[in-house]
From TrEMBL:
InterPro entries given in the database record: AGC-kinase_C, Kinase-like_dom_sf, Pkinase_C, Prot_kinase_dom, Ser/Thr_kinase_AS
PROSITE patterns: AGC_KINASE_CTER (PS51285), PROTEIN_KINASE_DOM (PS50011), PROTEIN_KINASE_ST (PS00108)
Residue span(s) of domain AGC-kinase C-terminal: 213-281
Protein name (record): Serine/threonine-protein kinase Sgk1-like
Organism: Coregonus suidteri
Length: 282
């Protein structure tokens, strides 16, 4: 129910997905979210291998803006990865999936739950230590590294070896990576979260970094910065950027009067905005 709680806060940010309503049937819980059909970063990285640095800069800035906003609401995201970062039809980032968020984390607050995706776990999480919102900046560093290199920073087919790398291996960077990108990655992927970039003053530390020198943060927030890639979509029904594994799935349920009796299974889950939505019998 964490995801519902976060979504119902009425997140007002251009790079976070929004909730329209939620409902339940006798077997399933549903969120009806913004329709985003530009594909996720995982899809695009799979096909392109890596991104040019200006493109990675743009996506990183929009992700950082979204994470900073969540932190300002005392929410830590905890699961940043390419699969959770969508592109809308205009080419802007939309962060989705709030299932692992932690609410109520004030400035300087910590948490200790072991959660996240293996490739993107911060060292302090792996060690079982109390950790702060700085885990999200580690996540951003991991995704930026992947956008520039094609794989997460400490990746191995062996999970045990990968965890060992996250804890102890030095960061390996390609020679082609610019000095400013190198500096940012070293700051974000600092194993000591007390020294990590963003650990003390959060988003403001990133905004002042040379890697983002080309970014006007006010224009970025107003979606005035032109995206470096615009999805080639013929219209809202174009799903070319989604894997057929998902688009060929059946849609077995919809909101109908027959489902209203299921609302008691998870009390408080179903949500509809104040404007009434008519429901007709199928």
């Amino acid at each position: 129910m964490v995801e519902r709680s976060v979504l119902l806060k009425g997140l007002q940010h251009p790079f976070l997905v929004g909730l329209h309503f939620s409902f339940q049937t006798s077997h399933t819980l549903y969120f009806v979210l913004d329709y985003i059909n530009g594909g996720d970063l995982f899809y695009h990285l799979q096909r392109e291998g890596a991104f040019p640095e200006p493109r990675a800069t743009f996506y990183s800035a929009e992700m950082a803006s979204a994470l900073g906003y969540l932190h300002s609401l005392n929410i830590v995201y905890r699961d940043l990865k390419p699969e959770n970062i969508l592109l809308d039809s205009g080419g802007h980032v939309v962060v989705t999936d709030f299932g692992l968020c932690k609410e109520g984390v004030s400035v300087g607050g910590t948490m200790q739950t072991f959660c996240g995706t293996p490739e993107y776990l911060a060292p302090e999480v792996l060690l079982g230590h109390a950790y702060s919102a700085a885990v999200d900046w580690w996540g951003l560093g991991s995704v930026l590294y992947e956008m520039l290199h094609g794989l997460p920073p400490f990746y191995s087919h062996s999970k045990a070896e990968m965890f060992e790398n996250i804890l102890h291996a030095p960061l390996q960077l390609r020679r082609s990576v610019s000095q400013s990108a190198r500096s940012l990655l070293q700051g974000l992927l600092e194993k000591d979260f007390n020294k990590r970039l963003g650990g003390e003053h959060d988003l403001a530390e990133l905004q002042g970094h040379s890697f983002f020198l080309s970014i006007n943060w006010d224009d970025l927030l107003a979606r005035k910065v032109p995206p470096p890639f615009i999805p080639n979509l013929s219209g809202p029904c174009d799903v070319r950027y989604f894997d057929a594994e998902f688009t060929l799935l059946p849609v077995p349920a919809s909101l109908g009067l027959s489902d209203m009796s299921a609302n008691g299974a998870f009390p408080g889950f179903s949500y509809m905005p104040s404007a009434e939505v008519g429901v007709t019998e199928p």
